[in-house]
Structures are given as structure tokens and as C-alpha cells.
Amino acid sequence: MLRVEKLSTFYGNIQALRDVTIRVRRGSITTIIGANGAGKTTLLRTISGLNKARHGLIIFEDQDITNTPPNKIVKMGISHAPQGRQVFGDMTVAENLELGRYSRRFANRAEYKQDIEMVYEVFPILAERSGQLAGTLSGGEQQMLAVGRALMSRPKLLLLDEPSMGLAPKVIQSIFKTLFRLHEQGLSILLVEQDAKIALETADYGYVMRTGKVALGGDAGELLENEEVKKIYLG
Amino acid sequence: MIYGSATVFTLLLVVTLSIKGSTGLQWIVSGLTVGSIYALVAMGFSVIYSSTRVINFAQGEFSMLGGMLMYTFASKAGVPVPLAFILSVIIVTLLGAGFERLAVHPLRYSSVITVIIVTIGFSIFLRAVAKWIWGSDPVKIASFSGDKPIRFLGAALVPQSFWVFGFTALAVLLVFLFFNRTIVGKGMTAAAANPDAASLVGISTSTSSLIAWTIAAALGAAAGIIIAPIKFAAYSVGTMLGLKGFAAAILGGLGSAPGAVVGGLILGVLETIAAGVFPSGYKDAVAFLILILVLLAWPQGLLGRRQDVMA
Ligand SMILES: Nc1ncnc2c1ncn2[C@@H]1O[C@H](COP(=O)(O)OP(=O)(O)OP(=O)(O)O)[C@@H](O)[C@H]1O
Ligand SMILES: [Mg+2]
């Protein structure tokens, strides 16, 4: 469904991605793990069009989407829940979700109802908090809102950047359970995580990134057994 | 800070009224009149700034052009006032939108400073063209409903003031509804707070910029038209009006629409009282004294937020 070929992205003269090649199969959860600064966020930002690629290709459903602006990418069916949640803090939960379907704002009201009910069913707490300002939600609730907002565009592929960041183990478990449910309903997910254990346990495939390069890739189960991965990321 | 300055400001109004009586009232009403105009111009600055981080130094020229076009349509060609008003606003708005597409949009990957310098160039260009079309003599535009003063508590108030208040209230309301009640406006508000997250839900920065310039040009033109019967219109009035509007925007907090209104009204009243109390040559100095003091002591302004202020 998604192919990234020899992708290179720069910040000024600093190269953050070096010939990154990955694949996301339709219906899979694919995870990317790696230490701080490995380039995981940069990879997601380049796919969703926030950063420009200098070399390489991004192919989504047989279309070249390299360097397409973000508002077009989301229309094509890729939705990105960014690192650090990035909810609109001065707006209510409901308004955040409403903006989540900005790319589909010309669709009819009935569909809007369906979308918002779907998100409220996935994250019932958001329904309870619908009138609350997003900035006053707890970290876990904000993460759910960030994912919920991303789902509002009816994505085929969800890009998720460190949903576990700063959350208690219990909350992380519940969010990952939800992700797995979405995956069972047919959503493809590209998941960036620092928490390698839970990421590899949830995912079908995994890649390990190191200093802007893909160092390893394969079945998530195999990576869990890999000596190097065990030592560095699970140890 | 907000309550402190509100108290000081109210005190000033009370003192003015009690010492000067009906003259004081007259000062305050005419202060609120020019203040409304500063508020509209300040809103133009803030709308563009919050969407694009650009300070549009041609903002005052939109007002100048509004006034001059009104003169051509209403005073020269005899077009009825409402139609002349609408025509003038539309032309200036198209000009603002056209400038955004032709000059600002192609620079979207350049630094903000580059765009700001281009707006300075644009303002010089507009002034030159206006001088060429209309000459350098000030022109007079008739008030919308005559000049017979309205007597109120011993003060004589010009009827045009009420047109100014009405239009300003309407414009502020429309802008508020757009940014808080429509999905596109909410998207622009969201984009001002968090551009990346807004892009990811599909809000196009390029469209936001175009809409912001369109709104700012319309606000500027309307301001220039409704004040023209009270002041006068000339090719040169845009510069000072732009600077005053900028001072008002800074005072209220650049990027904040309510701040622009508050800043404009306060600036207008202070300036008018100062003009009454001190020799009139010092009037314009008030705005810039306020601008400098606010920038030094309270750069985020009365209602602005710290993150909205450029580092
Ligand atoms: N805006 C930026 N300007 C300059 N360099 C940047 C910028 N953003 C990221 N970088 C650099 O690019 C490299 C990759 O950063 P990136 O954020 O993609 O890493 P990451 O794998 O997501 O890390 P983390 O796990 O900490 O989120 C780092 O060396 C980082 O310092
Ligand atoms: Mg990251």
C-alpha cells in the first residue's frame, strides 16, 4: 500500500534521512523503532508532506506522492497523528474532531454524524468530554483525541508517532488495544514507537532505524527474537 | 495588566468628563470614532499576521484606496452611496487578493522578512499610483447622512460617527463569526495556533493566506471609506493610518482580534484627549509613544499571547 524508496530528507545541511526504504502492506501494522534522533518523526513528516524529500520516492496505492502538500495527502487517505499529540488546545474536543474532518468538509452531515459516532465509540471518554477544552485534557485523553481527530478523515493508512509518550503503562495498554481493534477492522497503521516491546508485540512488521538509516527490518516476531534488538531496545 | 489598564483608562474617561463636561464627551466620542477606524485597520494587521506571520505594511494603503475610490464613485460619478461603498470595497478586496496570489504566494518558501519588505514596496507603489490618478490635493467626501450635528448632553456629535460605530460593530461581528463559527475560519484559527497540526488535518496554508489577505483588504477599504467624510481623503493618508493601526494592533496584542478592537479604541481616545490638552502638533506622537512603551514593557500587548509575539 505504501512504498518508500531511498528517501533522503534534510534540515538545512543536516541530513536526517539517508536512503530510507520501507514498505507498509495493506491491512498491516508496521512499526518503526529506534533511539532518539534516529529520524522516525522525520520519516513520518516527509510521508505526510510536512517536510520535503530531497531524493527518493514515496508511492501510495501506485501513485507517486513525493512532496505532495499535506492537505492533498490527507485527502488521498493518509492521516498523521503527530508526535506530542498537537491537539488544538483552545478548542473543545468536539471542535478538534470537527477539524479532523476538514478535508471532508464538503461531505454531507449524515456522514459527519457517522464519523463522530465512530470516534466516540472507539474512545467513549471523548464523548463525555466533548465540550471540554482540549488543552485541559489529561495526557492520555489528549492522545486519544489526537488519534480520534486523525480517524475523522476516514484514512486508509494511519501514521502514528509515539502514542505511548509520557503515558502510564495502563493507559498505553488501552491505547494499543484500541489500535489493534482498528487494525482488525481493516485500517493499515504505520506506528513509530520508542517502546519497542509493546510496538513489536502489536505489529506485524518492524523496522529499526539508526542515525537516519534503516538498520534492520522483518517480521515483528522475528525482530523480538533478534539478539541485537533484544540487547539495545528491549534490554 | 488588563484590569490595571482598564481601570486607568476608565479613570481617565471619568476625569475627562468631570473636568471638561460636554467638551470632554465630544472628545471621547470623536476618539472612539477614529479609534474604531484604528480598530479595523489593526484587525487587518492581526488577521494577516496570525495566518502568515507577515506584517503587511501596505495595510494603510487599502484604506487610502477605499477612500479615494469612494470619492471617484460617489462624489465624481454620482453613484449612490451604498453602491459606491460596495464597489470600492470590492475593488480593493480584489486588489488585496490579487497581490497575495501574485506576490505573496510565490514567496511562500521565502522568509517572512522578505514578504514584509515586498509589502513595503507595494505600499510605495500604491501611493505613487494614487498620486498619479488623483493628484496630491485632499478631496472631500460627503457624509452618509448629512452634517447636521446631533445634540447629546450638551455635546455636538457628527452623524457620521454613528455610521462609523455601526459599520465597525458589524465588521467585528462578521469577523468574529467567521473565525469562530465557520469550519474554514476555525481552521484558520487552528492554523494560527498550530500550523503543522492544521496542515495534517487538511487545512491549506496557501488558502488561509489568501483568505486572510482578502479579509484584511476588505476591512481596510471599509475603514478608509467610512472615515473619509470626517477626516479627508488623499493619496498620502494611508501611511499614518497604517502606522496608527499597527500601534493599535501592538497595543492590543498582535494576532488577537479582540485585542485589535480594544487597542484601536484606547489609542483613538487617548490621542483625541491628548490633542485637546496639549498643542495639537503632539497628537500623532501619542500613538508612537504608546507603541514604543508597549513594545518595551509589554510586548505581547493587552490581550495577546506571548507565543504570538515574534522572537
Ligand atoms: N526542525 C529541525 N531542524 C533541524 N534538525 C532537526 C529538526 N527536526 C529534527 N532534526 C534533527 O533530525 C534528526 C532526526 O530527528 P527526528 O525528530 O526525526 O528523530 P526521532 O527518531 O523522531 O527522535 P525521537 O524519538 O526523539 O522523537 C535529529 O538529529 C534531529 O536533531
Ligand atoms: Mg520523534
Features of this protein?
heterodimer, A: 235 residues, alpha/beta, Rossmann fold, six-stranded mixed beta sheet, four-stranded antiparallel beta sheet, 10 helices, 10 strands, 39% helix, B: 311 residues, mainly alpha, ABC transporter involved in vitamin B12 uptake, BtuC, two-stranded antiparallel sheet, 2 strands, globular, disordered C terminus, binds adenosine-5'-triphosphate, binds magnesium ion
Structure description:
Chain A has helices at 40-47, 70-76, 93-100, 109-122, 124-128, 139-151, 169-184, 196-202, 220-225, 227-234, and strands at residues 2-11, 14-24, 29-34, 53-60, 63-64, 78-81, 157-161, 188-193, 205-210, 213-219. With 235 residues, chain A is an alpha/beta fold. Chain A has one domain: 3-Layer(aba) Sandwich (Rossmann fold). Chain A has a 6-stranded mixed β-sheet, with helices on both faces. A 4-stranded antiparallel β-sheet of chain A has the order 2-1-4-5, with helices on one face. The longest helix of chain A is centred in the last third of the chain and has 16 residues, at 169-184. With 311 residues, chain B is an all-alpha fold. Chain B has one domain (2-310): ABC transporter involved in vitamin B12 uptake, BtuC (Orthogonal Bundle), CATH 1.10.3470. Helix content of chain B is 74%, strand content 2%. Chain B has helices at 2-20, 22-52, 59-76, 81-104, 112-134, 160-181, 183-193, 195-200, 205-227, 237-252, 257-277, 283-297; strands at residues 150-152, 155-157. A two-stranded antiparallel sheet of chain B has the order 1-2. In chain B, strand 1 and strand 2 form a beta hairpin. Chain A binds chain B through residues 48-50, 69-71, 74-75, 79-80, 82, 86-91, 95, 98-103, 105, 149-150, 152-153, and chain B through 183-184, 186-187, 189-190, 193-194, 196-204, 206.
